[in-house]
Amino acid sequence: MVASLLAASIGFGVVYNSARIALSERGRELASLRVLGFTQGEIAYILLGELALLALAAIPVGFLLGVGLISILVHALESDLYRLPLILNSSNYAMGASIILISAIVSGLLIWRKLGKLDLVAVLKTRE
């Protein structure tokens, strides 16, 4: 249970951090789109759609890397005295995927709030 909570907090941290980085990198561009007449929902669709696509693409890759890491650890810790079984259930995969999807949804809601606070005046004042 403790390991699951730790894994969930790390997963949320990774997803939220990538969302914050994407917002900080593209904040000026998104604010420029708002000035041009895009609604908050439209710019959220651009940013959060990209993040949702990345989260959905990362889940199968994470499954493959996780199974590989677990099998390496099981074989590395095997000795004459004891052996650790490699038992993977569909519930393991479902829990991992649901944690990442819930983290992505919560991160998206937090980023949605920050999209409403973009500084449109600063975008209008900058010269390029």
Task: Please provide a brief summary of the model.
By secondary structure, this protein is mainly alpha-helical. Helices cover 80% and strands 0% of the residues.
Strand content: under 5%
**Uncertain stretches of 5 or more adjacent residues:** none
Overall 3D geometry? elongated
- Give the number of domains: 1
Describe the structure.
- With 128 residues, the protein is mainly α.
- The chain has one domain.
- Helix content is 80%, strand content 0%.
- The chain is built from four helices and no strands.
- It has helices spanning 2-35, 40-76, 90-115, 120-125.
- Helix 1 (2-35) packs antiparallel against helix 2 (40-76) and helix 1 runs parallel beside helix 3 (90-115).
- It is elongated, with a radius of gyration of 20 Å.
Quick tags:
128 residues, mainly alpha, 0% strand
Helices and strands in order:
Elements (H helix, E strand, L loop, with lengths): L1 H34 L4 H37 L13 H26 L4 H6 L3
Helix pairs in contact: 1-2, 1-3, 2-3
